[in-house]
Amino acid sequence: MKGQVVLITGSSSGIGRETAYRFAKAGAKIVLTYNKGKTRGEKAEKRCQKLGAENTLLLHLDVTDDRSIKDAVKKVLKKFGRVDFLINNAGTGVFITFRKHTMKEIERQVRTNLEGLIKLTRSFLPYIKKGIINIASAAGKTAYAEMSVYCGTKFGVRGFTQALAEEHPRFKICSVNPDMTATRLTGYKGRPPSEVAEVIFKAVSGTIKVASGGDVDVWKIMK
């Protein structure tokens, strides 16, 4: 992975940050993004540099904003000229019964988890050289009460991943599906995000063999 350009969305905290650290240790060139956590993003970038990243770029990115996506593309191309692997990690969730969801909560989850992921992928697609890893979820394979909208978006991510792989067989494209992971989204309950990051790294590096468009279930790998 040394010298390869890896773009990880939502990498100022949680799974995204740990994934950035893992690729930094391998000497990759890391593009980190944050939406609201600029200070966390800056700390994560410095940590990547200390861990051995060949180069880094920190960007503000709101995947629900078309202009923000276009700006990110320009900045990445200006610095690196390409993206070897895109890791779509940015996401959000509201875990309450469906009847209690507000319109804004529904919109935020759909636009961040699914629409934003799709638009970002489309914008970077001409410049991607090797592959796309979409972070879906165990909740994208099994439906859970009080996660209806979140499940809908994550099922959608997996469907998009499978169809995209059919169109681009030369790329490494798959869904990585974490189970409950200790992030802000879960109140820091669950498996360490570093374990999910290790699975993502193995999927990208080829240590884990996965069919094009297929699923990598974290709980099966990290037994």
Question: Can you give a write-up of this model?
Answer:
By secondary structure, the protein is α/β, with parallel strands linked by helices. It has a single domain (5-221), classed as NAD(P)-binding Rossmann-like Domain (Rossmann fold), CATH 3.40.50.720. The chain has helices at residues 14-25, 38-51, 66-79, 103-124, 148-167, 193-205, 218-221, and strands at residues 5-8, 29-34, 55-60, 83-88, 128-135, 172-177, 215-217. The chain has a 7-stranded parallel sheet, sandwiched between helices. It is globular and about 45 Å long. The two termini are 25 Å apart. The model has no long low-confidence stretch (mean pLDDT 97).
Concise summary:
With about 220 residues, this protein is an alpha/beta fold. The chain has helices at about 15-25, 40-50, 65-80, 105-125, 150-165, 195-205, 220; strands at about 5-10, 30-35, 55-60, 85-90, 130-135, 170-175, 215.
Question: Main attributes?
Answer:
globular, seven-stranded parallel beta sheet, 223 residues, 44% helix, alpha/beta, Rossmann fold, 17% strand
CATH architecture: 3-Layer(aba) Sandwich
Shape: globular
Instruction: Kindly state the number of beta strands.
Output: 7
* Computed structural class: alpha/beta
Please state roughly what percent of the residues sit in beta strands, choosing from under 5%, 5-15%, 15-25%, 25-35%, 35-45% or over 45%. Answer: 15-25%
Proportion in helices: 40-55%
Number of separate domains: 1
* Text of the CATH class: Alpha Beta
Question: Stretches where pLDDT falls below 50 for ≥5 residues?
Answer: none
Largest sheet: 7 strands, parallel
Structure annotation, total helices: 7
Order of helices and strands: EHEHEHEHEHEHEH
In CATH terms, the superfamily is NAD(P)-binding Rossmann-like Domain
Could you tell me the CATH topology label.
Rossmann fold
Strand line-up across the major sheet: 3-2-1-4-5-6-7
Radius of gyration: 16 Å
How far apart the termini lie comes to: 25 Å
Overall mean pLDDT: 97
